[in-house]
Specification:
Layout (H helix, E strand, L loop, with lengths): L9 H14 L12 H11 L6 E5 L4 E4 H11 L6 H11 L7 H5 L5 E7 L2 H5 L13 H16 L22 E3 L10 H4 L8 E7 L3 E4 L6 H12 L13 E5 L1 H10 L3 H11 L1 E3 H6 L15 E3 L7 E5 L7 E6 L9 E4 L3
Parallel strand pairs: 3-4, 7-10
Antiparallel strand pairs: 1-2, 3-5, 5-12, 6-11, 7-11, 8-9
Length: 344
């Protein structure tokens, strides 16, 4: 993708927007025409040089230069102060353990989810509360969108070409939110992963889908966590072999239940692991496992998760309402969530 610097006249700028559509650079929504000044401001905010490499996707044989990321961040609508977060997310894409090509190319159509932790979330106004997964907040929308535009325009992850999603997900437009670190049952995700509380980080997670978890009556952890376990282990989930990570997002009322119970993060993780199971017969009836159903299948449990650390838990969403969410992962065997320090 070459730089095309538009004039400042609105009518001419609108023509550039149409030109970008014709070039196939858009995610389907209008793009902000970049200028030399706006791209330079991004690079300066990220403290990177235009030709600096942010990493390589080995499976794609592509190296990602900072200038191309800056151009896409401008087109996504980012402010310069958002750019360090975008840079951290792109560096996460390049981590070998994330295995970018796998979740980005699969027919499963995973959405790449960005979870922001630390002081930069409140500083930039990244939404962590009401409608945290939805529209209405520029940093959430444009940071997530910038990553997708990089995928489209730098890594050629285009529908039908290197993106083979059968249906895809609205989360593929933009999926970025901050963890709500206030009134948290435990320490936030980035501290759990070895960073300091004063560090700012971005965790990149390949989400297979998003399922709401509703419970208005639970006052103790067990009935609430049983719903999370069922969401992880529903018969339609691709995870019947025990390879996936899963992300549990506790919103206000449900986070309070866990906090008041005194349960540790490890207790929650282990409980979900033990309950995320189905009988082999259930999987066979649903056509998820091959073979005839034997008497033993009716009493033999199959656990779909193996390692408690694969149950990722964050807090986000409003205080009111009895909703949380479960985001089953695309596949632990083929991709791992990664956490990157936001530099600068």
């Amino acid at each position: 993708m070459d730089k095309h610097i538009p004039p400042t006249d609105p009518a001419e700028a609108a023509a550039w927007v149409e030109f970008y559509y014709q070039q196939g650079w858009s995610d389907g929504l209008p793009l902000v025409p970049p200028t030399e000044e706006s791209v330079r401001a991004m690079l300066e905010a990220g403290q990177v040089k235009a030709a600096e490499s942010l990493g390589t996707i080995a499976e794609r044989n592509v190296t990602i230069p900072a200038e191309k990321v800056a151009i896409n961040a401008v087109m996504a609508g980012c402010l310069p102060e958002y750019f360090p977060v975008v840079l951290a997310a792109v560096r996460g894409l390049c981590r070998p353990e994330f295995h970018y090509h796998n979740p980005a190319t699969s027919t499963g159509g995973s959405a790449l989810t960005l979870i922001v932790n630390g002081p930069i979330g409140p500083a930039l106004g990244i939404n962590a509360t009401h409608n945290a997964f939805g529209p209405g907040f520029r940093p959430n929308a444009t940071i997530g969108r910038a990553l997708r535009l990089v995928m489209l325009n730098v890594l050629n992850t285009r529908p039908g070409l290197l993106d083979k999603a059968t249906l895809g997900s609205p989360g593929k437009y933009a999926f970025c939110f901050a963890e709500n670190e206030d009134n948290h049952p435990w320490q936030p995700l980035h501290v759990e992963r070895g960073f300091r509380p004063e560090d700012s980080t971005v965790t990149l997670y390949a989400s297979n889908t998003l399922m709401g978890v509703y419970n208005q009556l639970a006052s103790t952890p067990e009935p609430l966590l049983l719903e999370f376990a069922d969401a992880v282990c529903n018969l339609a989930s691709p995870n019947v072999y025990g390879f996936n990570q899963s992300l549990l997002v506790l919103a206000g009322e449900h986070a309070a239940i866990i906090k008041h119970s005194g349960w540790s993060r490890r207790q929650v993780q282990e409980w979900v692991i033990q309950q995320a199971r189905r009988r082999v017969a259930d999987f066979k009836r649903a056509g998820r496992l091959p073979g005839e159903i034997s008497p033993e299948d009716e009493t033999t449990w199959r656990y779909v998760m193996r390692d408690p650390d694969d149950v990722l838990i964050v807090c986000a969403g409003a205080q009111g309402g009895s909703w949380s969410a479960c985001l089953p992962g695309w596949g632990n065997k083929w991709t791992r969530s990664v956490t990157e320090l936001v530099q600068g």
